[in-house]
Amino acid sequence: MTSPLKSDWDGPQTDNGLCLASPPKGPFSLGVEWSYNEGGEILRTQRENWAHESPHQLPSELGRGLAGYRPAGGLDGLPNFVIALFRCGKKKPWISIDFVPVVRGRDAVQDMFDFMRIAEKRFGELHKCTPRPS
Q1: Among 31, 58, 62, 76, fewest CB within 10 Å belongs to which?
Q2: How many CB atoms neighbour CB 74 within 10 A?
Q3: CA distance 118 to 30
Q4: Which domain range does residue 107 map to?
Q5: Contact between residue 115 and residue 99 where contact means Cβ atoms under 8 Å apart
Q6: Which DSSP symbol is given to 132?
Q7: How large a percentage of the chain has pLDDT more than 90?
Q8: Count of domains in the chain?
């Protein structure tokens, strides 16, 4: 993503949130969703949804989850998807990230792991907790 992005702010979220980034004209390029709710069920559903796509398991330090790539994109048209269920203090949040194709020659799976590492770290800073594997 090299062009300016537009965003909206609905104020602080208490138990879930969604962030969508897009160029001024065009479809969304990046989506980040998080919640403290139903993490185990959400992860189970995503494992079922990705079972035939050869998903990659997250590195254990990021918690439980998967990363996957669909050349045709998912329902939102974004082909890269990663989800993690982890601990942060006494809570068990989950974060999912989906985004546009990466530049040819890059390792999309490693990029997904890196995005999740950044997202978990930032989540911990915002929520004043330390992310740990679930």
Answers
A1: 76
A2: 15
A3: 14
A4: 21-133
A5: yes
A6: E
A7: 57
A8: 1
Domain for residue 49, yes or no? yes
Average pLDDT of every residue of the chain: 87
Within-domain flag for 5: no
Burial class of residue 12 in the structure, from the number of CB atoms within 10 Å of its CB (0-12 exposed, 13-18 middle, 19+ buried): exposed
Identify which of 44, 67, 47 has the alpha carbon closest to the alpha carbon of residue 116.
67
Ramachandran class of 54: left when φ > 0, alpha when ψ lies in -120 to 50, beta otherwise: left
Is 94 within the bounds of a domain? yes
pLDDT tens digits along 1-47: 455 656 555 666 788 988 888 777 777 788 899 999 999 999 999 99
Residues 47, 134: contact at Cβ < 8 Å?
no
